[in-house]
Amino acid sequence: MRKRCINKNDFSDITFLIGPKREPIHAHRAMLAARSEVFRTVLKQQLVNGNNKQGPLVLEDEKPEVFLTMLDYMYTNCCTLTIDLCPDVLSNSIEYGLDGLRKIACRFMADCLSIESAAVIFQSAILHDQKELKKRSLAFIEENTLKVFDSERFNDLSDTAFAALLRSDLLQLDEIDILDRVKKWAKTNSISSGQSLRKIAAPVIYTVRLALLSPEELADIEKENDETHFIPVDMLAQAWKMHALKSKGTDKGSIRLRRGTKPRDIHNFIALAANRNPSSDSESGDETGRKILEASKLKETCSDS
Question: Architecture of 1-81 per CATH?
């Protein structure tokens, strides 16, 4: 099939012009219609309209190598993937209703998780709502938080994917370090997009848990923010309010300890335990948080002695 059918002009009855350069790729209507309901609908409509012999179909937004990989799967039920190619192949599999290819792409990416690929894979899982792939890539990032956050491709994360990542309680980074990574991500994307730092950070900044920082750290951040206006004023005000009242308030997500959160005195009053279970926001969650804080203090005491 590969040698005689895929992208061969002999006996083909449909041609696609792929990408900005409009690279011609040849295929067969019967095969496309048999494997994809999307293609079947399009080709059937052509028959109804009497356009069966019309000219090439132009797909400027497609990449030739991705389209050929998809055809490879449609003709042979298998394909060759790379980690750079796979996110686009996953996108095509969903667009053209190829569930078998979707499963292959997700399985391949899950098996290829690494420090450099984790952010890209997580973003693909978020973008295409692939729950199992999201679960596996998130677990990998949680176990390798610092290395992934400092990886070369991390700043390519979309704001949606970055915000979803920062909702995790199990990241092994302290909140001051997370704020620093948000600033670096926003600065990089601000330069590349030409948009303001504040506008870039807006969809992400509220996932930073400022209330977990010490009063001294908050004061330093507020002083710096007077010049950059990076952090919304209401967000800083809410953190100060919780510090002053020593109250957890209503937004439990903003005071949940992450796995990498360093202990601070203020945590005795407003912090909740890091836990995947939503019930940790309840009284039992508070009790678990208290035990974690006590354990952290005991560990510090032992280290000092």
Answer: 2-Layer Sandwich (3.30)
